[in-house]
Amino acid sequence: MGKTYERIGDRLRTFIESQPVFFTATAPLAGDGHVNLSPKGRSGTLVVLDELTLAYLDFGGSTAETIAHLRENGRITLMWCAFEGPPTVLRVHGRGEPVFRDDPRFSGLLRHFPPEADGAGLRAIVLVRAERVSDSCGFAVPFMDYRSDRELHAQYFGRKSDEEFGGYCEGKQYVGTSLDGLPALPLPLPPRPA
Fold first, then answer.
1. How many domains would you assign to the chain?
2. Is there a domain that residue 125 lies in?
3. Tens digits of per-residue pLDDT, 152-188?
4. Residue among 178, 183, 2 nearest 89 (CA)
5. Are 45 and 111 in contact (CB under 8 A)?
6. At 74, which CATH number?
7. What is the DSSP letter of 183?
8. What is the extent of the structural domain holding 141?
9. Torsion over CA of 191, 189, 115 and 128, rounded to 10 degrees?
């Protein structure tokens, strides 16, 4: 039976931090706009900052739909599924905002992540304030074994200088604007703080 929580307590925090993958869902305000659902991984790239606040590192590599939707309306849902252990699905519905590399808060937020989580291709930190925290049964979620993170993403962007990464972002479709024409990642990409 599902339950709603007032906050992200120690048990939920442990569950969140032990999952190797989570999903983000966002949508534009327009009824005919594209809903976006994205898987997120890479160890250490999501942190629970306090009982109602989470943050994750947003890397380049695909479009910037999540960023565009957050800039427009702030609505976001994060979801974790237990692929081992007790069957659980946890959702955090809330308000999110992208914190870009030229934002004065960027460096301070980055300090909450393990140093090895930071890397080439980092374009923003997504800050999420929980408005609703709930779980439900995961009876239909299959058991799956986690082997390791894929290293291809980090390796690919690790071969690019920050300037080359900025050029990559400018040349990629649906990064500066979303599929629906909403402002997404600011271009040219702001440099990383020193």
1. 1
2. yes
3. 989 999 999 999 999 999 999 999 999 999 999 999 9
4. 2
5. no
6. 2.30.110.10
7. B
8. 3-171
9. 130
